[in-house]
Amino acid sequence: MTASTAEQTSASGSKGSEPPVPEGAITVTVKIRRFNTEFDDEPRWDSFEIPALPSDRVLNLLHYVKWYLDGTLTFRRSCAHGICGSDAMRINGVNRLACKVLLKDLLSAGGKPTTITIEPIKGLPVHKDLLVDMEPFFEAFRAVQPYLINYSPEPTRERLQSAADRERFDDTTKCILCACCTTSCPVYWSDGSYFGPAAIVNAHRFIFDSRDEGAEERLDILSDKEGVWRCRTTFNCTDACPRGIQVTKAIQEVKRALLFKRV
Amino acid sequence: MQFHKYDVVIIGAGGAGMRAAIESGQRARTAVLTKLYPTRSHTGAAQGGMCAALANVEEDNWEWHTFDTIKGGDYLVDQDAAEIMAKEAIDAVLDLEKMGLPFNRTPEGKIDQRRFGGHTRNHGEAAVRRACYAADRTGHMILQTLYQNCVKHGIEFFNEFYVLDICLTETADGPVCTGAVAYELATGEIHVFQAKSVVFATGGFGKVFKTTSNAHTLTGDGMGIVFRKGLPLEDMEFYQFHPTGLAGLGILLTEGARGEGAILRNADGERFMERYAPTIKDLAPRDIVARSMALEVLEGRGAGPNKDYVLLDCTHLGAEVLETKLPDITEFARTYLAVDPVTEPVPVYPTAHYAMGGIPTNVHGEVLRDNDHVVPGLYAAGECACVSVHGANRLGTNSLLDINVFGRRAGIAAAEYALAHEQLDLPENPAAAVEAQVALVLSEHGHERVADIRIALQATMDANASVYRTEDTLKQALHDVQALKERYARITVQDKGKRFNTDLLEAVELGFLLELAEVLVVGALARKESRGGHAREDYPTRDDTNFMRHSMYYKQGEALAADIRLDYKPVTFTRYQPMERKY
């Protein structure tokens, strides 16, 4: 191996020069909803012209803005591949994770100029730009007793569970609590006291787990006026879920369990 | 400034932090301070499994697991610690199951197990089914299950509190940890937490590299804080490159794929691991597989237009195995490379993945201040710690095991220490250093962009301190990192506000990255041998005469550019004598 210098390998010319333009880049317009509650009286739209590759994630475009054009742009992100659930936002009007949407899927047809619109998820108070207050969302999650409840004496080894019983709740174990579903729900937008799809998904995960003995308590909670009956089956939540969870189906299964008093 | 008082403060809410919190929170008044919401932690990105000799599907025992861990770590493992980990692994898995973790099941309803790299039957005879798993989302399930149980136990979290310093109170017997200082991201306020015990569980520092499986937030904050306090770091030159990152992107594809039968092939379609590890082939430990892949590419047998990657062939596994046992990585390949693993081999190349080194601790999670003494009240667990159970190369699944076994131990030890001791006074002006640090970053003192320095750092580390290293490449890396440190003294941030100032956050994180990159490179230069994750082209063999010892690094002074003093610590042996590693 031969040594490579930082200068040769650096993607940028650095020292505050023009930001780097990758080879094969096209220029897109990114229009971002801005609102800093520390200084601003009301939200505004900022537009940025960005060189980007079709294989770039929307998160790359946001990083480009933050790192080279406007350091005050604020959003959450961590894993950058759809596992941590930090970067839920409204991209061209639909809830998505910024790290799971590629530019090539957003390009305008026929080589027309592309504009990508990015807003914070709806229904939660905005703190700054794309970063919202997640506390109401996690409060609803905590309210459904999202943990295994089992009153029987513990066996010395594992509790047995058949592969079929394990499969029964597999879909809802995939939830990463990103809030894409809950903040795409029209009922949640109009009434924040509704638990919302994500909390019900996490209740479902335990109600249908054969090892769990807390179904009755959770179903009591969910039959409350803030519970599952608010759901109007618009399927926004299912469309929004970046993990492909059948959210509406899970809510319907909880409704059915309530109606027929059995899991 | 706000002031809080707890028995135990845990810093970080990934697997190790939350496992510690579940123990500590039931025994003592506990607060968890975390840069991220707990469920955002990178434990959730772990995929393949967690090994324990349950023997649910074939004969196994924890002594074999101990041996595999020690041999896998190229004999730099402290053998007493490895024995504890392998022995306690069984209860660690069963505890998680009882907490609700939805493991995959055998036809009899027991926890299912699969093969993983370096885990063998009877000291290397053949691969053994030891990894307990939940599809390829084992880390996700562990993180969710631990968070669920924290909710159940009413653990108190301070979310988006970025810890920037710890409080050490000097006594006649040396420093004692008395608290931590955090910057609240939402408000920009500084908080002092007085505590009898502090537990670091802040994860790794993969962002010193460009191609990495690590999250943007993995910037080695905990290791950096400890190092700046004059406390040692251990074995930092040992950094693991996971063989199967998505080529060009670094996104992790689990070793569990090879556990289920996937095969690595070069451009000629050859199953090249047969040449490098004739017995267990594609299931050799990660250091050996990563080196083999790099060699295939260096010798011109790489695939693709630039011959710069190899191929992970899953096509013979069938759609059902991929959809049920490896669904997430199947989706990653489709989403990010537009490659369908059901029908096409997936381009892969080693990706910076895991720090074997870190904050030195004993088996109770107590942090060492030198080879012989601990810092009372200070603990560390998980990737930020070095027990050392991973030695020079961690086996796959042993990180999820490490966070559970040593997270639990650190949580118990921290709470018991807190209950048995009086609270000492904090040092004078405990918040002063953090206030000054924040003020300095926000002040106008130059024009260097944080992103430029970080990108240059990552580029030189990828080019010069990656899978293979030489004296020349490492000297270049050291020169670059030191020059970047000088530039860091002149950084500017655009955001001067107090509300969620992530511009400031990234600047502070970069400081830790530079610090840790230099330690890694200094250590790699000094270790003139090849062992585990540290492969020197100019010193291709292991040198037990001179280097069968842990490296210990101490920062000499406060300045970012301060010298690093290198010392050594003996390896603990119990019953396993070093042998040549063959697989």
UniProtKB/TrEMBL annotation, chain A:
The keyword Heme does not apply. Residues 1-15 have a biased composition (Polar residues). InterPro entries: 2Fe-2S_ferredoxin-like_sf, 4Fe4S_Fe-S-bd, 4Fe4S_Fe_S_CS, Beta-grasp_dom_sf, Helical_ferredxn, SDH/FRD_Iron-Sulfur, Succ_DH/fum_Rdtase_Fe-S, Succ_DH/fum_Rdtase_N. Residues 1-23 are annotated as: Disordered. GO terms for biological process: respiratory electron transport chain; tricarboxylic acid cycle. Residues 165-187 form the 4Fe-4S ferredoxin-type domain. NCBIfam families: dhsB, PRK05950.1. GO terms for cellular component: plasma membrane. The keyword Chaperone does not apply. It comes from Umezawaea endophytica. Belongs to the succinate dehydrogenase/fumarate reductase iron-sulfur protein family. Its EC number is 1.3.5.1. This is succinate dehydrogenase. Pfam families: Fer2_3, Fer4_8. Keywords: 2Fe-2S, 3Fe-4S, 4Fe-4S, Iron, Iron-sulfur, Metal-binding, Oxidoreductase, Tricarboxylic acid cycle. It comes from the Bacteria. Its cofactor is [3Fe-4S] cluster; [2Fe-2S] cluster; [4Fe-4S] cluster. GO terms for molecular function: 2 iron, 2 sulfur cluster binding; 3 iron, 4 sulfur cluster binding; 4 iron, 4 sulfur cluster binding; electron transfer activity; metal ion binding; succinate dehydrogenase (quinone) activity.
TrEMBL record, chain B:
It is a peripheral membrane protein. Belongs to the FAD-dependent oxidoreductase 2 family. FRD/SDH subfamily. It is found in: Membrane. Residues 7-400 form the FAD-dependent oxidoreductase 2 FAD-binding domain. Pathway: Carbohydrate metabolism; tricarboxylic acid cycle; fumarate from succinate (bacterial route): step 1/1. Its main location: membrane. The keyword Flavoprotein applies. It comes from Umezawaea endophytica. FAD binds at residues 12-17, 34-49, 221, 383, 399-400. One of its GO terms (biological process) is tricarboxylic acid cycle. This is Succinate dehydrogenase flavoprotein subunit. Its cofactor is FAD. The active site is at 286 (proton acceptor). Substrate binds at residues 242, 254, 353, 394. PANTHER family: SUCCINATE DEHYDROGENASE 2 FLAVOPROTEIN SUBUNIT (PTHR11632), SUCCINATE DEHYDROGENASE [UBIQUINONE] FLAVOPROTEIN SUBUNIT, MITOCHONDRIAL (PTHR11632:SF51). Flavinylated by SdhE, about 5% flavinylation occurs in the absence of SdhE. It catalyses: a quinone + succinate = fumarate + a quinol. Keywords: Electron transport, FAD, Flavoprotein, Membrane, Oxidoreductase, Transport, Tricarboxylic acid cycle. InterPro entries: FAD-dep_OxRdtase_2_FAD-bd, FAD/NAD-bd_sf, FRD_SDH_FAD_BS, Fum_R/Succ_DH_flav-like_C_sf, Fum_Rdtase/Succ_DH_flav-like_C, SdhA/FrdA/AprA, Succ_DH/fumarate_Rdtase_cat_sf, Succ_DH_flav_su_fwd. SUPFAM superfamilies: FAD/NAD(P)-binding domain, Succinate dehydrogenase/fumarate reductase flavoprotein C-terminal domain, Succinate dehydrogenase/fumarate reductase flavoprotein, catalytic domain. GO terms for cellular component: plasma membrane. Residues 456-583 form the Fumarate reductase/succinate dehydrogenase flavoprotein-like C-terminal domain. NCBIfam families: sdhA_forward, sdhA_frdA_Gneg.
